[in-house]
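re: the backbone from monday

yeah here it is again, tokenized this time
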């Protein structure tokens, strides 16, 4: 019998499901104040999406470089959400501003 090895995405999903289940059991019927989820793992499972690790297309690369140059910066190490927010603000700006 051949044993199949789970992909990275399958392994991650399995781990998240196990931790989410454990957190739900540990908290009983008590959710985090104001949250509709019992844990961040449950949030990721229900609202997150798996991203591709394929190289950017030429069009995507051009767009990203344009946004990096136009965004207010400076970008900070280990501040992924902050950096993404800066890029998002510039992406929603009018094309004439960029």
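seq for it, each position gets an aa:
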């Amino acid at each position: 019998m051949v044993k199949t090895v789970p992909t990275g995405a399958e392994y991650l999903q399995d781990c998240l499901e196990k931790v989410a289940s454990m957190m739900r059991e540990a908290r009983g019927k008590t959710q985090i104040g104001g949250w509709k989820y019992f844990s961040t793992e449950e949030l990721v499972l229900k609202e997150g999406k798996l991203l591709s690790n394929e190289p950017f297309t030429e069009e995507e690369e051009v767009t990203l470089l344009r946004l990096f140059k136009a965004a207010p910066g400076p970008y900070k190490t280990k501040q992924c959400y902050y950096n993404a927010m800066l890029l998002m603000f510039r992406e929603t700006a009018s094309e004439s501003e960029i």
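The first helix runs from residue 8 to 27. The mean pLDDT is 80.
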